[in-house]
TrEMBL record:
Domain of life: Bacteria
A GO term for molecular function: hydrolase activity
Keywords (A to Z) from UniProt: Hydrolase
Record-linked Pfam families: Hydrolase
InterPro entries linked to this entry: HAD-like_hydrolase_sf (IPR050155), HAD-like_sf (IPR036412), HAD-SF_hydro_IA (IPR006439), HAD_sf (IPR023214), PGP-like_dom2 (IPR023198)
This protein's name: HAD family hydrolase
UniProt organism field: Streptomyces dubilierae
UniProt EC number: 3.-.-.-
Gene3D superfamilies in UniProt: HAD superfamily/HAD-like, Putative phosphatase, domain 2
Length: 218
């Protein structure tokens, strides 16, 4: 395979962003922090440590960071057996695989969470590799997650497309030198995705699949 389709997972292929928002909101609340849900939503997509720093600032007690992340992980874990794939997410990956793309997931999830996400997508036969945040020193919006995905696929940046739902995804893909496709199903406005580097924007995986012939993944 000489080209790679790299996909973010949460909010892009699986409808989990608002579950993350609720889990983070509750974890912050239990720790005595009152963070508005809309602010949490805008931060979803950052690695856990970066999300906490982004929302609480440099004057927070950093000794709390690990407990906050653990609280979120425990609260979010209650949804693992019923995570919902977005419409036609699996069909999109299988179509790209048939068309000769190396399909690589680039996600901050790992372990049981990643397994739950892959079960929801139900397209393991189409997935070439998975790049997780554990594999790199810096998560999105740094380019390393996308660059690592390209290394796994053995494909140069100019032969790759990155699909994601957040501004952090678009910035990471742009910094890695790949074309970026945004989807709106994560709840981030089209204008924000385009401003952050999206070459094209679609409603969700089903919309991208239906418009594949005219997309950057043609």
């Amino acid at each position: 395979m000489e080209r790679a389709a790299v996909f973010d997972v949460d909010g892009t292929l699986v409808d989990t962003n608002h579950l993350h928002v609720v889990a983070w909101w509750e974890a912050f609340r239990q720790a005595g922090h009152h963070v508005p849900m809309h602010a949490v939503h805008r931060a979803v997509g950052l690695p856990s440590g970066d999300l906490v720093a982004h929302l609480l600032g440099d004057d927070r007690d950093p000794d709390q960071d690990a407990d906050l992340s653990a609280g979120h992980k425990a609260l979010y874990g209650q949804y693992f057996d019923r995570l919902p794939a977005l419409p036609q997410a699996g069909e999109l990956l299988r179509r790209l695989h048939r068309d000769g793309w190396a399909v690589v997931l680039a996600t901050s999830a790992g372990g049981a969470e990643l397994s739950a996400l892959r079960r929801a997508i139900d397209a393991d036969d189409a997935i070439t590799a998975t790049a997780s945040a554990d594999d790199v020193d810096a998560g999105k919006p740094a380019p390393e997650p996308v660059e690592h995905a390209l290394e796994l696929a053995g494909v140069p940046a100019e032969r790759a497309v990155f699909v994601g739902d957040t501004v952090w995804d678009m910035r990471a893909g742009s910094r890695a030198g790949v074309r970026c496709v945004g989807v709106l199903c994560g709840g981030i406005p089209r204008a924000d995705l385009e401003e952050s580097g999206a070459d094209a924007v679609y409603a969700d995986p089903a919309h991208l699949l239906s418009a594949l012939a005219g997309s950057p993944l043609a």
